[in-house]
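Customer ticket, subject: "Can you confirm the structure for Enoyl reductase (ER) domain-containing protein?"

Message body: Hello, I'm evaluating your service for our small team and ran a test protein. I'd like someone to confirm that this is what the system normally returns, since I don't have a reference to compare against.
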Amino acid sequence: MSFNAIILGKDEVTGFSNSLKTITKQQLLQQPGDTLVQIHYSSINYKDALALTNKSPIVRQWPMVPGIDGVGTVIESHSGRYQAGDLVILNGWGCGETHWGCLAQYAYLKSDWLIPLPNNLTTYQSMAMGTAGYTAALCVKRIIDFGIKPQDGKILVTGASGGVGSVAISLLSRLGFNVTASTSKTSDKEYLSKLGAVDIIDSQSLKTPNKPLQKELWSAAIDVVGSNTLANICAQTRYGGIVACCGLAQGMDLPATVAPFILRGVTLSGVDSVMASYDKRVAAWQLIAENMDEQLYTHIAKTITLDQCSEIANKMIAGEIKGRFVVDVNK
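Agent reply: Thanks for trying us out. I re-ran your input and got the following:
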């Protein structure tokens, strides 16, 4: 059996390479794993874009099949956890970094990394969400479990036009929260409003250093930006509020003071999607399955093919796109 996959390579002579190639099942099964999955769809996340463009040292082993997301049918499994014909989702676990990922027609994975596709989600819908949507759901769940309720006040979502931001806005809105979207693309007002954003602010207002304590604006926030933006959000969060942090688009530094934490009791909560437990993954995906408006899957996501991935990756790094990109690996 042979199939198509994106292969990333790197050596001292030719440097970095990115190409669509045909590989064999025998090559694939050299990867550690116990479950062979026929991939229906994958997706392009920011981490995938970094790997596809070699803009950051995401890939740790060469050659590499990128793709941190995948959904498909189990062909065979030696773990006893899944049976042939089961539909499963993969997010993270180092795939596309240290283990061949899902921008391919087949993937050989560890069953511990997989979760069942929720009954009320299609394979396409799951990748319209992908790791970005699943991360957004983890953040929303963190805020809900913390005890924040719609009547507590506005919630801020940064990077609003991106994958995490888009899904976070939609989920929060469906759950009854008043959402403010922060974006550099203020021209995306119609897109963000349809997701459920009530107010839209220019992200530039959060990017420069400001006072350690500012006017209390947010009961909670979801931030994908980091750096000065995150510091300002903490300074603007209301007494007893929470900020769920899951990204570093502006930078990994945090030029803040302890003032919001010791004077207003603000909680800064880090959210990791790569190594999250099975139970957390299932709960996040169930939140998506139960609360996403079906019409918004097509509003948020566009479909591309394997040979279009590099083009989209470059545009994503340049900040020229919005929403999500589902990869139909079989076209």
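A couple of notes from the result: The chain has a mean pLDDT of 95. The chain has two domains: 2-117+295-328, 131-270. Feel free to reply with more questions.
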